[in-house]
């Protein structure tokens, strides 16, 4: 039986010029991160989560 998990979080205000990506809940594997502006990829990188 699959149980749905509901995750809720709140943070106080972050600086407006920084973006934080928390990868704690990602599964092990290789990921690609793309930053898109006006429907065009302006920066693309990849990373691997080991643990």
Features:
mainly beta, about 50 residues, single chain, two-stranded antiparallel sheet
Itemize the secondary structure elements and their pairings.
Elements: E1 29-37, E2 40-49
Antiparallel strand pairs: 1-2
Structure description:
A hairpin with a 2-residue loop joins strand 1 (29-37) and strand 2 (40-49). The mean pLDDT is 86. The chain has no helices and two strands. The protein has strands spanning 29-37, 40-49. The chain has a two-stranded antiparallel ribbon. The chain has 51 residues and is an all-beta fold. It is extended and about 40 Å long. Helices cover 0% and strands 37% of the residues.
Distance between the termini: 27 Å
What kind of sheet is the major sheet?
2 strands, antiparallel
- Number of DSSP-assigned strands: 2
Share of β-strand residues: 35-45%
| Helical coverage, percent range | under 10%
Instruction: Give Rg in angstroms.
Output: 15 Å
Q: Give the overall pLDDT as a whole number.
A: 86
**Globular, elongated, flat, extended or rod-shaped: what is the shape?**
extended
Number of helices: 0
Give the helix/strand class: mainly beta
Q: Strands across the major sheet, in which order?
A: 1-2
Summarize the entry for a quick read.
By secondary structure, the chain is an all-beta fold. The protein contains no helices and 2 strands.
